[in-house]
């Protein structure tokens, strides 16, 4: 009797490190289908991610064109073409302090540089307004959107819908932030300029295209789901 009790205690104290378990695995046909689906999803993502980031969704009735001042000069020329095509009353430039060359220039912000460039390129001076954002270490797009919101609240243009003109794959992120800052009082459309550094239809073939698309995709996800001040 005592031996039987001892065996029962030993069974209770025994630690099971492994156990037998039934496992389902893919067949050859299953692996082929799975690989084909992954390849199809990857191809879809590669071919559609750039149009998603470089979004074009303008509001036809918008009276104000907001231009991110840090875009290159050729993008500013595109902004002028958009301004002339549309029924805009005002073109507003935004942007923070210059990160290089500020000691050599009388203009201290991207907003000011873009505004004077637009005037030099033929836009009527009274239709161009610079709205510089304060210096920030991070959250530059948010700072520009927030500063524009403050300026708009004190201007005669409040209540108007706007179109935001940004650069290439950065447009989706800026559009997200401007909408979050200005909604629900102001409707915001988006217009993406072109990028001459690579072919947008084959961005994966260019080092600049790969860096731009991957960086902007990660930054957009971060702004959307983790911290929208980006």
Distance N terminus to C terminus?
75 Å
Specify the structural class.
alpha/beta
3D shape: elongated
Poorly predicted ranges: none
Q: How many runs of DSSP E, i.e. beta strands?
A: 5
Largest sheet: 5 strands, parallel
Physical arrangement of strands within the biggest beta sheet: 3-2-1-4-5
Estimated helix fraction? 40-55%
What is the H/E order? HHEHEHEHEHEH
Gyration radius, in Å: 27 Å
Measured by DSSP, the beta-strand proportion falls in 5-15%
- Provide the residue-averaged pLDDT: 88
Number of helices: 7
What attributes characterize this protein structure?
alpha/beta; single chain; 230 residues; elongated
Structure in words:
The chain is α/β, with parallel strands linked by helices and 230 residues long. The protein has helices at residues 2-13, 28-53, 73-85, 110-120, 140-153, 171-182, 207-225, and strands at residues 64-68, 90-95, 128-132, 162-167, 188-193. A five-stranded parallel sheet has the order 3-2-1-4-5, with helices on both faces. Helix 5 (140-153) packs across helix 6 (171-182) and helix 6 (171-182) runs parallel beside helix 7. It is elongated, with a radius of gyration of 27 Å. The model has no long low-confidence stretch (mean pLDDT 88).
